[in-house]
Amino acid sequence: MKASGFRTFIAVCAGTQLAIIPLMLFRGDAVPVTAIAANALVIPLIGPLLVSGWGLAILGGACAPAATVLAIPIRFACRYVVAVASFFSAVPKAGIFGTTAGVLSVVIYLYALATIILRVRSGGALFKPAVAFMVAVMLALVPCTPIAAFSSSNRVTVLDVGEGDAILVQDRSGASVLVDGGPDGRLLMKKLEALNVRKLDAIVSSHPHADHEAGLITVLQQLPVGRLIDPGLPKMSGLYRTMIQVAESKGVKRTIAREGQVFRVSSSTELDVLYAPLDLEKIPEDVNDCSLVVMARVAGMRALLSGDIGPKAEDTLLGRHPNLECDLLKIPHQGAREAASARFYEACDPAVAAISVGRDNMYGHPAHECLELLASRGIRVARTDTDGDISLSVDNGRIGLVKARR
Q1: By the 8 A CB rule, do 305 and 293 touch?
Q2: Is the peptide bond before 366 cis (omega within 30 degrees of 0)?
Q3: 29-45 pLDDT per residue, tens
Q4: What is the rounded CA–CA span in Å between residue 393 and residue 151?
Q5: What is the pTM assigned to this prediction?
Q6: Which of 57, 251, 311, 404 could bridge to 389 as Cys pair (CB 3.0-4.6 Å)?
Q7: For the chain, what is the mean pLDDT?
Q8: pLDDT at 142
């Protein structure tokens, strides 16, 4: 392709992108700031590959051996297209709804696209729009480096409470939410006191198992709580019934969670209910599959708190919410052998996976199968049995991970 032809091709790619981005932003979608680069590298091959594919299909009926030989270079071309798509899709998307860096990335990307079109029409150099494009990509990458060890008041902390779950969500306005309470109320209260938690805007009981619920009873007895959110299961265990009774005696408002509910705790924090057992055709017999699944959003950071859902509940969740992208994923069931599937991790694509698990527990958690699956997907893992309290913070789009260490 001649230089002038290539410039025209780039301008067409830029124009196509420029036309669809407003529609994406209107729908609330994020913008793939590397799309123009990916298009420039693969689109010239798409037409020839389609024609070649049709030709091979016809040739295959007449002479299969010849078609097999001619398919070799086409196969390599297809692998190249897939490799390019995989490489550029790894760069995070940017949007007007997220961090400052994300907003700037979109604005600069739009400038780069418009400038490409204008420069091609006027015969000008493409250096400045190329630089703008690189800046847009770098800005899109800024929020996705949970490498720095810093803490802010906007954070989600997976508390080290032994073999169980207790997750504290806080923001700089002073709002605080506790999701599950672990098996030991006294230990949990010590943790909350050390973090200067004197009240809770809400507590969430994901499901009525002692390793998630026992500590909540102590919290309800000792701290002011604004609201109790629970799955509302008709069959109550003794512990579940006690928790409800304590909440009623303390005048705590109770809300039975339903899928689609959004609890706005403050201007920076909200809880989205993505899965609730009462919205299923039949309430699962396995109490783990009755776990509430909540997406906690704190100052633009997303934490998926998955209770102890099993494979059946996971399938239902993914069927209803195929995109569960998050910064922090709380691994179900202390990282058991079948804690989650590769499909689940792909849908979540977390920066950090947190496993809340007791040290030297009798169940062998976390299972090596779970750890190997996470490692195979390049997901960073933090564990309460080795790392203590795990805190993921966000400050102006930057995400920092702090481990208490034992």
Answers
A1: yes
A2: yes
A3: 668 888 888 888 888 88
A4: 5
A5: 0.66
A6: 404
A7: 88
A8: 61
Amino acid, single-letter form, for residue 57: A
Q: How far apart are the first and last CA of the chain?
A: 61
Closest to 331 measured CA to CA, from 350, 353, 312, 349: 353
Instruction: Count CB-CB contacts under 10 A for residue 121.
Output: 11
pLDDT tens digits along 252-278: 999 999 999 999 999 999 999 999 999
Report the distance separating Cα 240 and Cα 262, nearest Å.
Answer: 23
Beta-ladder partners of 178: 168, 203
Token look-up 């994300």 returns 102
Residue 234, phi-psi category: left (phi > 0), alpha (psi -120 to 50), beta (remainder): alpha
Query: What's the token pair of residue 206?
Result: 């994901």
Locate tokens 């062998």: which residue?
364
Residue with tokens 């619920």: 213
Q: How far apart are CA 318 and CA 274, in angstroms?
A: 10
Contact 193, 161 (CB under 8 A): no
Half-sphere exposure of 209 (CA within 13 A, CB side): 19
Task: Give yes or no for a contact between 18 and 117, defined as CB atoms under 8 angstroms apart.
Answer: yes
- CA–CA–CA angle 235, 239, 243 (5° rounding): 95
Q: Is the pLDDT at 144 greater than 80, yes or no?
A: no
Q: Which tokens hold the place of 360?
A: 């030297």
